[in-house]
# Entry
Amino acid sequence: MNWQRLLRHPSLVIGLGAATAFALLGLISLVWTPYPIEQIVVARRFLGPDPAHWLGTDHLGRDMLSLVMSGTLTSFLVAFSALVIGVGIGVPMGLAAAAWGGAVEWLVLRISDVTFAFPSVVIAILIATLAGPGELNAILAIGIFNIPVFARVARGGALAVATQDYVAAGRLAGLGNAAIAARHLLPNIASLIIVQATIQLSLGILAEAGLSYIGLGTQAPATSLGLMLRDSQSLFLIHPWLGIVPGLTIVLIVIALNIAGDGLRDALDPRLRREGLNHGAG
# Structure
């Protein structure tokens, strides 16, 4: 991968830099936060930003910056874990559909159709009914929803690559479907997978926040950005800062990831940018 070429795209640098900064902020919370997130000081409830508490304190007197740092880590971990499930299962399914075709392709498409019929919230409700709410169940719900997304992206990209001469040459050389998929299809659709992964990561952040907000995701005493929003809902009109801080953090993370995704798309596949400009001119 030509890093110098990638770094020539300002949107990629800005988006990836901002997303990385948020991720590092979350990782730092593993070893340090300004205050312990479980520290409750009732006498210091509802404080605004000050030198001691840069983002103020919540309804229990906990430091908001510490909660945001820990909550950001939780949101990234849930979204990234769900992304690994989607890529790890969906991409092989899509490659299998493109390489083998026939009954395999039909089965993959039908499984994708069935999974798409159930949004991640519905899947989370079903899982929570059987096993109870929690981070693991949120990961499973979002991950299951990611599978058909990557399966369809991988299948579409692989079908386009499968018409190339070097794929036909590989078949003439005696390569089987599995070898064709691994040696020729996967490397040539990697850019599509990377761009889609960036998009799904941002959607995973939103989904985790939504699931935690309705009580199906992260549970106290752990924290997440969605759980912070849930705790602030009854106090929003009196102390709007409690909801603005986690809400704005979610918005900034998602915007950063989307900008990074656009930059990656332009950098890894310039044809998409040219086609978009041509359509706009037409």
